[in-house]
Recover the amino acids of this structure.
C-alpha cells in the first residue's frame, strides 16, 4: 500500500504544477480568471463585491472606484467583483470561508454583499444539499477547486464519504483531480472566457427588449406551470435572517474572523421582477426588518430603493438584471452612498494608510 502511495504523491506534485495551467481548475474559465486576478493582485483590493448574477452583471468596479476617488480625494479605492452566476450570498458563504477563494492579507478589506429581498436567504452549510446544486452551481461545486476547498460535499451524495478507503483515496490529489486529468487527456476543454468580462470581474450585458416582451407575454403559462414563483415568501426566512445569530450576523462574524468589514446593499433588481411575481410588498417588509437589524447591531446596509426611476428597457438587460449602462449608473450611485458614510470613509483611509 505504502509503495503505491509514494509514487502517487510524487506524481501529484507534478500534476499540481502543470495541470491547471492547461485545463480549468473550477470547471468555469470565468471563475478561473477571477481567482487568478484576485490572487495576483490580492494585496491591492480594498473592496470585494459578493453575490449572484445580479452583482456580477450589475456592479462595475471601475465606475465605482472612479466615483469614490472623486468623492474622497487622495484616498480612492480599488475594488473587484467576485460574484458568480447562480451563487446567492448564502452559497457564496462557504466559498468565502476558504483562503483558496479569497487570499488573506493584512490591509483592511471591505466586503460588499448584494441582497435580493424578495428571495429566501440563509447560509449554505457544508452538507449534501441537492437544491443548491443546480445547472449553474454543479460544475463549480464538483470541480477540483471545490474538492480542494472542501465544499464539494454540497453536491455529493452522503454515501460518497462513508468508508475510510474512500476518504483516503480522496485525500490523494490524483484522485481528486481525476476528472480534470481526463478532460486534459481527451481534450475536453471548457468554453472560452467571454471577451466581455472585464479584468475586475464585471460582466456587462446589452439590453434585450425582446426578452422583456417575452417575459410579460409568458406570464399566463408561467403562472400555470411555475406557480411556486408567485407564491408568497414565508416571513420566517427574513425574520430568521435578521434575528440574533441569523444570516446577517453570521456574515458579519465571518468578516470579523477573516479581518473584513461586511457591508450589505440592496440589489437594483428590475421592478418588473417584483411586480410580475407580486413581491413588492415583501421587499418593503424585509427592508423594515433590516432597518431593525441595523438598529440592534449597528451594521451597515446601503439602500438605494427599488429603481423605479430607471429606464426598464435601456437600464436593464432583461426582466431582472442591469444592463451595462444601468450598471454604470448604479455603481456610481452606490459609491456616492458609500462615500457619504463616515465609518466607511474611515475604513478606506485606514486601508490607504497601511500601504
Amino acid at each position: 500500500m505504502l509503495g503505491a502511495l509514494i509514487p502517487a504523491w510524487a506524481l501529484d506534485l507534478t500534476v499540481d504544477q502543470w495541470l491547471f495551467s492547461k485545463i480549468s481548475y473550477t470547471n468555469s474559465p470565468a471563475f478561473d480568471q477571477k481567482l487568478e486576478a484576485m490572487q495576483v493582485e490580492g494585496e491591492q483590493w480594498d473592496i470585494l463585491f459578493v453575490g449572484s448574477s445580479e452583482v456580477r452583471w450589475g456592479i462595475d468596479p471601475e465606475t465605482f472606484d472612479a466615483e469614490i476617488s472623486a468623492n474622497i480625494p487622495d484616498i480612492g479605492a480599488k475594488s473587484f467583483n467576485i460574484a458568480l452566476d447562480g451563487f446567492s450570498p448564502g452559497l457564496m458563504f462557504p466559498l468565502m470561508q476558504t483562503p483558496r477563494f479569497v487570499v488573506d492579507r493584512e490591509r483592511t478589506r471591505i466586503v460588499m454583499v448584494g441582497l435580493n429581498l424578495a428571495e429566501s436567504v440563509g447560509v449554505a452549510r457544508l452538507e449534501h444539499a441537492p437544491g443548491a446544486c443546480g445547472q449553474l452551481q454543479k460544475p463549480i461545486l464538483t470541480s477540483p477547486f471545490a474538492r480542494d476547498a472542501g465544499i464539494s460535499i454540497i453536491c455529493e451524495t452522503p454515501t460518497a464519504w462513508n468508508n475510510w478507503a474512500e476518504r483516503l483515496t480522496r485525500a490523494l490529489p490524483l484522485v481528486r483531480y481525476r476528472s480534470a486529468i481526463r478532460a486534459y487527456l481527451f481534450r475536453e476543454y471548457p468554453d472560452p472566457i467571454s471577451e466581455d468580462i472585464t479584468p475586475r470581474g464585471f460582466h456587462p450585458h446589452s439590453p434585450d427588449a425582446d426578452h422583456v416582451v417575452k417575459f410579460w407575454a409568458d406570464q399566463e403559462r408561467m403562472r400555470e406551470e411555475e406557480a411556486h414563483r408567485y407564491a408568497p415568501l414565508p416571513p420566517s426566512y427574513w425574520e430568521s435572517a435578521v434575528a440574533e445569530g441569523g444570516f446577517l450576523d453570521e456574515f458579519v462574524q465571518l468578516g470579523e474572523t477573516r479581518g473584513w468589514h461586511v457591508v450589505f446593499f440592496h440589489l437594483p433588481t428590475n421592478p418588473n421582477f417584483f411586480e410580475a411575481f407580486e413581491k413588492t410588498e415583501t421587499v418593503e417588509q424585509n427592508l423594515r426588518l433590516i432597518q431593525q437589524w441595523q438598529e440592534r447591531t449597528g451594521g451597515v446596509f446601503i439602500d438605494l430603493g427599488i429603481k423605479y426611476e430607471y429606464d426598464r428597457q435601456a437600464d436593464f438587460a432583461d426582466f431582472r438584471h442591469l444592463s451595462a449602462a444601468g450598471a454604470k449608473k448604479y455603481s456610481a450611485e452606490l459609491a456616492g452612498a458609500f462615500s457619504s458614510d463616515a465609518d466607511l470613509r474611515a475604513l478606506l483611509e485606514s486601508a490607504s494608510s497601511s500601504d
Notes: The CA atoms of residues 241 and 247 lie 4 Å apart.
